[in-house]
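quick one before i forget lol
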Amino acid sequence: MTQPMLLISILLEMVVAALGIALAIRKKKKYGWFIALTFILYIFYDLANLFPLTVSQDFLSFIFFAATASILWAIWNIFLEA
């Protein structure tokens, strides 16, 4: 992914994280926190790839796994609600 596209992606992830927080606070949907957590973790992951941060690949793999588990929990709860 090119740097400008990665920066746009990070900005979009920030918007989604903010909307997840709004969903949790304003609509009282607990899964909003997990949506926000997912995209906050994606932001960290992308920033670690964009800048020369001294983060191990194992830690980045864990971050990606945690984000996937978080969105799975959120989607499962949305599914149960619908």
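fyi The CA atoms of residues 30 and 46 lie 25 Å apart.
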